[in-house]
Amino acid sequence: MKRLALQLLFVLALPALLVAGWWLASADSTDVFWPPLRTILETFPDVWTGERLRDDVLPSIWRLSAGYALAAVVGVAVGTVIGSYRRVRAVCEPVLEFLRAIPPPVLIPVIMLFAGIGDTMKVTVIASGCVWPILLNTVEGVRAVDPVMLETARSYGISGPSRLRHLVLRSASPQIFAGLRQALSIGIILMVISEMFAASSGIGFTIVQFQRSFAVPDMWTGIIVLGLLGYLLSVVFHLVERRVLAWYHGLRASARRSP
Amino acid sequence: MRLQNAALGAAGLAVFLALGEAVPRLGLVKEEYFPPTSRIVRALADELSDGAFWTALGDTLTGWALGLAIAASAGIVVGVLVAVVPYLREATASTIEFLRPIPSVALIPLAVLLYGSELRSVLLLVVYASFWQVLIQTLYGVQDVDPVADETARSYGLGTWARIRHVLWPTALPYVFTGVRLAAAVALILAITGELVIGAPGLGARIAVAQNSQAVPEMYALIVVTGLLGLLINVGARTVERRALAWHQSVRGEVAV
Fold first, then answer.
1. For the whole model, what pTM was predicted?
2. How far is CA B197 from CA A39, A207, A243, B3, B74, in A?
3. Does the interface ipTM go beyond 0.90?
């Protein structure tokens, strides 16, 4: 019980201190750009409820999930193919390295040429940025599948989809998840930026709107919403990862216990 | 085997470039949207002979290098400090976990209000984004210190500073390098994004101008430049890493195989 209380103290102490510091430091701030935290928090419920939640937050999340899902499917599929064949890998590697090195946001102008400024553009932008870490990590993971296990599977006559599902993808999954995690933060960045470019809805659009009209407390609430969204998604991701990779973490833990 | 791989890679690149030439020429995609490779190359040559391009490149690299340097030193110092002082790690864990996933682009409006389209706006984004990469890796690295080695150093009477210098630092260094390498890539992305969205001088702003003036081949040429820059930074970081860690098992193992 005492341990739990101590742990809770550790978790909460610094955040509480920081928020309190912000509150006090900004309490009678007259600086336009740094409004008092109290004003920001009072503005928060007015800005982010009802209509705005429906018209801005939900579309943003929808675009992000669609782009991310598309990138995950394409990345894992193409990555598995490239990872499985040495020659294909050798052919594709330089091109992939180059495409990955392009900072994803510069593709927004290009994709705008093809897809206009609608939702298609935003989903494509998100997918085109997220796909690289997933793809390259899948390639690495598939490459590293234990050759002994591959041989065993072959001699037992396990082939085709079941080999893919039970052996290749499973043993590559820790790597794939590492890629998915990287892609998540890129996805949020691209979601926001694509909405800052040309949009009539979305969180990024709203925040830029506030900034341009000098509604500074409203803008701050937008920054907080993005922070909360980022945090929430990373928590959800962590939970999913723990479930899916439970076997892997268990294996690692037992390997550590018995060296 | 290596030679064969290089040849296959070159062939892949050639096919990629040839496709880029053929697809618009055959009319599969509109040429105004996707100019053939040869036109992009010509636009690239024009860019290279333009002084303004080099100024923009310099601006981007300044923002990148300055931001990365600040983020890396801050990340390393904070990381070591947090790891060395008892309880500090547990006390900061929740805050770090909360602040880290906040997308750095959320700070764009704030940066615009505070600094307008200056270098400092870009720096704010770059430093925020790359700081976490270095910090997290430093924390992992310090955690990896062998407790027996640390205890041995302690029992030989090494002070805190000597233990940081001789036990902790060599253990953490490979992790720190990984962090800096990741941060270097992130810093480039954020530097160019900042320029693109905020309009601070640099390659990103030049891409935005090319887009607004419908100069499509120039736009593609500049995008190619950003890709090459990213590639160069990646290769450079890996080389530095291999040199600096030549003594380390992970690198020695690589060479031996």
1. 0.87
2. 28, 13, 38, 43, 26
3. no
